[in-house]
Amino acid sequence: MSIQHTTLGTASSLTVSQLGLGCMGMSDFYGDRDEASAMRTIHRALDLGVTLLDTADMYGPFTNEQLVGRAIASSRQGRDGVQLATKFGNERLPDGTMLGVNGKPEYVLAACDASLQRLGVDVIDLYYQHRVDFDVPIEDTVGAMSELVAAGKVRHLGLSEAGPETIRRANAVHPITAVQTEYSLFSRDVEDAVWPVLAELGIGLVPYSPLGRGLLTGSIAAPTDLPDGDARSSAYFPRFQGDALEANLALVTRVREIADRLGCTPGQLALAWVMSHSGRDGVTVVPIPGTKRVEYLEQNAAAAGITLAPEVVAELERAVPREAVVGDRYGDMSTIDR
């Protein structure tokens, strides 16, 4: 397999691998933790050319940044062979207690220093506000983020789950390189209002959960297939509950039928669908599928070699109509900026 590189953003451009690795599940939310397996997965990703690593201070909390930092330091590629992305803004205590969203300028500066220390690096390539703080003007938050760029602690700025007007206001303060949001066959609302703004302003899109939190891989047939302690079993993820799960799995069956015909896995097909949209209207799309196992990483990386004909893209979108997906992305959508 050959992973190509692409560029996120125009006014403040960052060259990255055409898909990245989401590291969250290695430390939080998706069941058991196995640091040795996680380290092998990160090292294998870098060996394959998957060089965009995505983490956040709240994952663990705090331990995922430490894990990623150790993996980079012990890799053959070293720090210069990685594009390192992390996030601030979802404030947590060490015991996991959620305190809420914090975009205050003084917190931005302190959070960055703490992330740099945990990661063991001098500079972060792409620093995101994880969620928009509705009580702090975005101009103030991004103003503090721009100070980090001026200080040489951060190279590029990003926003996660930001709405179109927030993106415009933020970009007026400092060029935004990328917006991260959920985007998959199961989550396409970004196409409506956010995508046109990204195209207009020259901002890249970094989709998280491009495999529908694992549903689109076809490996989940019932809640009992999820490991103990997996947050997807909770009401916070409505698409995995009861009748909603049954309806969504019926859509996955349609994806599997097309994948079988094409000789790939459902997950590879779903990921190739996301990647097929890169370049549309000038928007670069770089998904960051998450996994903590080498086997699944290699499957995801192989999707980069799948080119979908326009008729297959259209067939997939007919097989999984937007309105057929049952359940919101989260049980509480109040922190998602619209």
Word description of this protein:
It holds the Pfam family Aldo_ket_red. Keywords: Oxidoreductase. The chain has 338 residues and is α/β, with parallel strands linked by helices. The chain has helices at residues 35-48, 63-73, 105-119, 138-150, 164-173, 194-201, 242-262, 266-276, 294-302, 310-319; strands at residues 5-8, 14-17, 21-22, 52-54, 83-88, 90-92, 98-101, 124-129, 154-160, 176-182, 204-208. The protein has one domain (5-212, 274-306): TIM Barrel (Alpha-Beta Barrel). It contains 10 helices and 11 strands. A 7-stranded parallel sheet has the order 3-4-5-8-9-10-11, with helices on one face. The longest helix is centred in the last third of the chain and has 21 residues, at 242-262. The radius of gyration is 19 Å and the shape is globular.
